[in-house]
Amino acid sequence: MAHPEPSAPTRQVTSPGRPTLFVAIGRQRVGKTTTLKAIAEITRQQGGNPEIWNTDSLNRSHSISSLGDGVLEPPSNTAAGQAIWLEERIENMVTEGHDAILDIGGGWTAMHELIKTSPLITALDEIGVSLVALFMIGVEHADIDYLQDLQEEKAFLPPRTAIVINEGLIPTGHETRLAVKEVIRHPTVRRAIGRGAVYATFPAINGLKKIADRGQTFLDFAANVPVTGMPTSSVFDRLRVNRWLKRDVPLFLRDLGPDYLPRMPKGLPDVVMENV
User: Which of 30, 181, 257, 272 stands 20 to 30 A from 80 (CA)?
Assistant: First the structure.
């Protein structure tokens, strides 16, 4: 399970048939795309079929579009134009019944535009779409700015909110447990937890740039799928990614909990502790 405050109110649990919009929020380079991409790949592996939406028009070197055919992108690059596109896609979720994983990018995004211009949480609840918001942060206080602004200035804190600390942003030599403990002491984080948010730690991945340079999925890289024009990947790199996918990420998913994940008909993946 994730880590709710003992005194936190009961969290809203979405029924299995209710479509969920799954989004990661945070400033640039806090690991939103990496986290969403890993969750999307494992969701597909476990029998889920969420739509993948990409409104991060600035990120081309490490993009969720590397998931291949079927990733949907808006025709507009402006936040206002993308917000209109998002409204249309969300309406389709109701009629089609599918989940959606949205990579919004950093800075002022279409998601922020929707939050500013509409009562988003109320609107989603009225049409029957659930929202899961992951606030991605590292150990810098500036990483918490998005959570502080949306929670305190715009009154945006969905019933299913998770604060995800990216282990990859913890400085070398710092113990993960102590670094996470320091993050959750921040007053903004404490207020979110007190209102029902949970927290979990996303595991660091070794060799992300090599995967991004190849434009591959994590699963394809671990399986040694060749890429035209690229040299064969190192066996050590592949084994490290394989261990991350089979041990570290499944542990994170279990810690986060199924209520904070897209639907996986086969259930959460097994945690493989040996021979990886």
Answer: 30
What's the rounded Cα separation, in Å, for the pair 276 and 251? 14
Between CA 258 and CA 69 the distance in angstroms is 26
Owning domain of residue 77: 20-260
- 143 with 57: CB under 8 angstroms? no
Quick one: which of 200, 204, 145, 195 has its CA closest to 172?
A: 204
Q: What DSSP character marks residue 152? A: I
The amino acid sitting at 102 is L
- 49, 252, 15, 241: which is closest to 134 by C-alpha? 252
* Among the listed residues 49, 110, 38, 47, the one whose alpha carbon sits nearest the alpha carbon of residue 74: 110
271 located within any domain:
no
Q: Total structural domains in the chain?
A: 1
pLDDT tens digits for range 147-160: 998 898 888 999 99
pTM: 0.89
CATH number at residue 28: 3.40.50.300
Helix/strand/coil for 128: coil
Q: Tell me, rounded to whole angstroms, the distance of Cα 6 from its chain centroid.
A: 25
Amino acid at 57: S
C-alpha atoms less than 13 angstroms from C-alpha of 118 in its C-beta half-sphere: 17
Q: How far apart are CA 223 and CA 232, in angstroms?
A: 12
